[in-house]
Recover the amino acids of this structure.
């Protein structure tokens, strides 16, 4: 958690946005996992990916405002980039997989 690095006046603004965006990554995946078609699942995977990009934007702002240093930013970007790469692979699999849960039921 990086929120302790931020000034108190940011606790309800940028920190809140970072927390909500990062939590939405997994929430979108969870919602999509309950969908029966691969295309519906892929839609929510794409939303997760987009929310990851939103999180990166918030981290860029935190870096620009000097709320976090370059080292912490790089550490978080490496982790987010790994997550985004996995989401991209999952999305491609979902789009290209012809065997859907709908067909199996």
């Amino acid at each position: 958690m990086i929120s302790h690095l931020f000034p108190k006046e940011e606790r309800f603004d940028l920190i809140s946005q970072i927390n909500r965006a990062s939590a939405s990554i997994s929430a979108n995946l969870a919602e999509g996992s309950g969908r029966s078609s691969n295309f519906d699942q892929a839609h929510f995977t794409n939303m997760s990916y987009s929310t990851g990009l939103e999180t990166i934007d918030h981290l860029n702002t935190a870096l620009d405002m000097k709320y976090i240093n370059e080292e912490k930013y790089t550490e978080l970007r490496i982790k987010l980039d790994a997550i985004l790469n996995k989401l991209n692979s999952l999305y491609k699999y979902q789009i290209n997989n012809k065997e859907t849960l709908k067909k199996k039921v």
User: Anything to note?
Assistant: The CA atoms of residues 64 and 70 lie 10 Å apart. The chain has four helices and no strands. The first helix runs from residue 14 to 33.
